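User: As part of a screening pipeline, I want to sanity-check one entry by hand. Below is the sequence and the SMILES for adenosine-5'-triphosphate. Please return the complex as structure tokens so I can compare it with the automated output.
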Amino acid sequence: MMLLDPGFLIIQTLNGLQLSMLLFLLSIGLSVVFGLMNFINLAHGTLYMIGAYLALSAVRLFDSFWIALILAPLGVAMVGAVLYALLLRHLQSRGPMSQVLVTFGLIFVGIDAVRMIWGPLPHGLPVPDVLDGRMEILGEVYPTYRLFIIAVGIVALIGLYFGLERTRLGAMVRAGVDDRTMTAALGINIDRVFFLVFCLGCWLAGVAGVISAPVFSVFPGMDMSILILTLIVVVVGGPGSLWGAAVGSLLIGMVDTYGQILAPEFARATIYALMAAILLLRPHGLLPARPIH
Amino acid sequence: MNPAGISLQSVDAGYDHGHVLQGLSFSVEPGEMVALLGRNGSGKTTALKTIMGILRAQSGRIEFSDIDITDKATYKIAGLGIAYVPETRGIFASLSVHEHLTLVGAKSGWSLDRIYDTFPRLAERRSHRGSKLSGGEQQMLAIARALRMGPRLLILDEPTEGLAPVIVEEIATIIEGLKHEGMTMVIVEQNYAFAARIADRIHIIGRGRLRWSGTPAEFDADDEVRFTWLGI
Ligand SMILES: Nc1ncnc2c1ncn2[C@@H]1O[C@H](COP(=O)(O)OP(=O)(O)OP(=O)(O)O)[C@@H](O)[C@H]1O
Ligand SMILES: [Mg+2]
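Assistant: Here is the complex for your manual check:
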């Protein structure tokens, strides 16, 4: 039985962790934005894809993965800011249906746009030299670059924890998630807080896009499958909460990874069944940001 | 402190199903303490929410310190110097006591030292989250948070509701202290004896309109008004 082989378990758990961390980078922005404003941005995966493509161009221009890792997420945050100012801002008071329809439409606009700019064929991005090797971990050899992805996710989790729990802006975000009206009654411009959080979420989606480019291929539509997993993470974890996104990402990342190996034909069905079961038991997700009353 | 007055002129406001406030008018002078009284459902809370811009006035006009605030956003109204302690207290479950008090903090507001001196219970509980506080502690925190904003008008919606008598006394002392400093205040109270004791003027709201207005002495003397609009 494969499951009893420790080597197999270690490798697959690391693979699962890698997917979990990408899902965390993507879901946290979506989750907090949803918790804060009940705003659903289905085009969040598109920002991830744009991150990967911008990285492609940045590497061509500057011949450095690291410069791409700095520039591309900033570019994505700017795309997000422009999108917000021109379009999404006006959807806020419109209710979920128009948000879903408009941002769903944006997914296809995004796919067409990258196809026009970068062409329809898949691209690859080389792994940066320093990380292009293998490391021994718990007696198994594992690609260094994949460990780097896991490390980025952990650093992001720690950074976000401090940002959210230890800064005044973080306190404003939590206050807004708990009780938006009261936060405004304290003189806080919740729309501005929301905008900052939205841009930060886009930036993190951009980071996820850049770091996943050397592992997965970059092609128009690469955002679709990860977008679905990300939405599941938000729902399962409970919107608006950092730990919800973290635990949800870990769960879905692991279940998807092991599912693809143990029962590939049922992997997605298993995830949907898991989501349904969790929502039946805990309709607001595993660790929702829960207000008083 | 630089107290400011407020006035409502023929304000209509309400929820989806229709108007609760129907041409409500009243005013509060700078430095005055007004008690808003009225039966359950008469529209007191609705009036306060409309002042704060949480509900929109469909018609009429609200002026604070001679500025028209009728259509302003809630955060701007708060920024002009109105602090609001809602009936539900509005304590954030995931913020500590200390975070509630540092979330806002105007130069003109109370210092943290003064807050913790005045509310020793909050000092003891400074690292506890909002979800872990008792009702009395939540109420004190809501008032303390409002004072951190350095308001020119303080609005309190039933600050003593459902609290133990000791705590009611503590809150009453603080409110009386604020009155002596000359803070403009609007307080909604079910405890009429308490309201009559601390208020300069009493406004009675009935079915969304101002029905009576006078001093606590006039209120005590007028059995008919108390019976008609408050049922006592
Ligand atoms: N969120 C709401 N949605 C719809 N109707 C509401 C809402 N809140 C209050 N109402 C209705 O508006 C009317 C006035 O309510 P309001 O809360 O202003 O009364 P109040 O004078 O503060 O009463 P109380 O003494 O019980 O606090 C009531 O008929 C109430 O049922
Ligand atoms: Mg009320």
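Points to compare against the pipeline: Residues 6-230 of chain B form a domain with the Rossmann fold fold (CATH 3.40.50.300). The two ends of chain B are 37 Å apart (CA to CA).
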